[in-house]
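The authors assume throughout that readers already know how a fold can be written as discrete tokens. Each protein is reduced to its one-letter sequence and a matching series of backbone shape codes. I therefore recommend that a typical entry be quoted early in the introduction. For illustration, here is how one protein appears when written out as sequence plus structure tokens:
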Amino acid sequence: MARAPASAPPPAPAAPLPTTFLMGPRVFARQLAPTEPAPLRYLGMAGLSAALSGVAYATLVSPAVRLAAEVAGGASPLAAHATNVLGGAFLTLFTYGLMWGLGRLGAGRAGRAAEVYGASFALLPPLYLLVTALALLTPEAAWRPDPAALAQAGENSRKVQQLALAGLAQTAPAALLLAVTVLGTAAQCALAFPAFAVLTGRPARAAAGTLLPLLPALAVGFIALAPLLFSR
């Protein structure tokens, strides 16, 4: 008698898209739980957010860089813009690394912190794009230093740029970028809690995975915005 053909193994469950995190962290965690752990699964989302954060910051401060170059012969604007983009992107990726490491320390292996926090970066790209758009639309009159202050700064490139940064720090896109940095990071950590609770089944571990990265991540955000914050 012929043998019955062996049944094919069931297909592996597909991992949720990072945007599923926006629909609900619990939904995301339930879909993630049966998949094989892959710490780098959502690295692309963190990388996209990092790139857009660098672009948003560089766009916001670019008028100060250009003014310093025009009035006082400052550093090449192109080089300064590239430095600002790369610096902002690096600090955002560093924040992701902190969330990953400290989240795993708190929530344990079952919490899958790299994937939870990686997907949580889906919150940020639209906000960084909004900051960039507002920065491009901000009129020069909203930030440009008064002629007397510029005359006093003379050809001191650092002072001219600091005067312009002080004006830019008072604009709407600067306030929005600060809000995204503080409230966005806090929201990432807060929304990670229900995901960790589903994945670990232990509220205490979920709380630890949420709270341990919070202050270090906020500290890195403040470092990234230091030129604006301390120019006020």
Observations:
- The longest helix spans residues 77-107.
- The two ends are 86 Å apart (CA to CA).
